[in-house]
From TrEMBL:
Subunit-level organization: Part of the 50S ribosomal subunit; part of the 5S rRNA/L5/L18/L25 subcomplex. Contacts the 5S rRNA and the P site tRNA. Forms a bridge to the 30S subunit in the 70S ribosome.
Organism (species): Candidatus Uhrbacteria bacterium RIFCSPHIGHO2_01_FULL_63_20
Gene Ontology terms: cellular component: ribonucleoprotein complex; ribosome
Annotated keywords: Ribonucleoprotein, Ribosomal protein, RNA-binding, rRNA-binding, tRNA-binding
Gene3D superfamilies named among the record's database cross-references: 3.30.1440.10
GO BP term, pick one: translation
Signal peptide (from-to): none
Large ribosomal subunit protein uL5 N-terminal domain sequence ranges: 23-79
Organismal lineage: Bacteria, Candidatus Uhriibacteriota
All copies of domain Large ribosomal subunit protein uL5 C-terminal, residue ranges: 84-176
Protein name, as recorded: Large ribosomal subunit protein uL5
Function description: This is 1 of the proteins that bind and probably mediate the attachment of the 5S RNA into the large ribosomal subunit, where it forms part of the central protuberance. In the 70S ribosome it contacts protein S13 of the 30S subunit (bridge B1b), connecting the 2 subunits; this bridge is implicated in subunit movement. Contacts the P site tRNA; the 5S rRNA and some of its associated proteins might help stabilize positioning of ribosome-bound tRNAs.
């Protein structure tokens, strides 16, 4: 069953019971997913820039946007307007397909996985998780890799608080670590 159908048939009724929503439209949903790669040490390396761009293009299925520095920081050798990262924003069908792939394939492929940390939530119900290696995604072939880099995934929800967002993502199948 597709993740969006699972959301409509299982998650919405469960959240309505848990939080006492009377309207279906009051139930939290996912609005967008943003994938982000910071260039870090590869700022000056054009090959690293190409690798990060092709990686994001493969994983997300659409072209990334280059993020540029707003101010100059001499200690980090960053000049205003210099490309410091890349990001892709997913919405709609691509977002639901990516989330399904994330939950069912990519997260289980992560090395030494013991559950997602619960402290990745901000105060507005959004969740951010980081991958130290981008090879956890099935589109990336491990024999074609020259450079391993990290990847950040931010899931934006309409939830008003951390408990609502946690419950939403947990019922969608995201494997959060259990508190001991």
């Amino acid at each position: 069953m597709a993740l969006k159908e699972h959301y409509k048939t299982t998650v919405v009724p469960a959240l309505k019971n848990q939080f006492g929503y009377t309207n279906v439209h009051a139930v939290p949903t996912i609005t967008k997913v943003t994938l982000n790669v910071g260039l870090g040490k590869g700022l000056k390396d054009a090959k690293f820039l190409e690798t990060a761009e092709s990686t994001l293009r493969r994983i997300a299925g659409q072209a990334p946007v280059k993020t540029k520095a707003r101010i100059s920081i001499s200690n980090f050798k960053i000049r205003e307007g210099m490309v410091v990262g890349m990001k892709v924003t997913l919405r709609g069908k691509r977002m639901w397909d990516f989330l399904e792939k994330l939950v069912k394939v990519s997260i289980p492929r992560t090395r030494d996985f013991r559950g997602l940390p619960v402290n990745g939530f901000d105060g507005q119900g959004n969740y951010t998780l980081g991958f130290k290696e981008h090879i956890a995604f099935p589109e990336i072939k491990s024999d074609e890799i020259e450079v391993i880099h990290g990847l950040q995934v931010t899931i934006n929800t309409t939830a008003k608080s951390k408990p609502e967002a946690l419950s939403l993502l947990r019922t969608l199948g995201m494997p959060f670590e259990e508190k001991t």
